[in-house]
Amino acid sequence: MASLQTAIHTLQLGTPLMNAAGVWCTTNDELQAVVQSHAGAVVTKTMTHHARQGNVSPRYPSDGVSSVNRMGLPNHGVEYYCAGASTL
Question: What is the largest CA-CA distance in the chain?
Fold first, then answer.
């Protein structure tokens, strides 16, 4: 079988495949699922120092032709993600 090993500068990865930023990385359970997958790395969503609810709805308005992403960086805050990272 061919090897998919790759490197990003000095970071060695078993595979170049990873989740897209913001996909399956909102909660610690989702992060755990990505870690347990065959991904070569885990890409997290943007986090802020303090938890944020994000913008009011509609956060992702679409007219069927175009859309606007105005989520407002909803996240649990850096402490939440650091606490979960210690279990990864």
Answer: 49
Tokens 């069927």 belong to residue = 64
Rounded distance, CA 15 to CA 69, Å? 30
Amino acid at 13: L
When pLDDT is averaged across residues 26-32 and rounded to a whole number, the result is 81
The angle at the Cα of 20, spanning 17 to 57, to the nearest 5 degrees, equals: 165
- Collapsing DSSP to helix, strand or coil, 30 comes out as helix
pTM for the model stands at: 0.61
Q: Work out the burial of residue 29: count CB atoms within 10 Å of its CB; fewer than 13 is exposed, 13-18 middle, 19 or more buried.
A: exposed
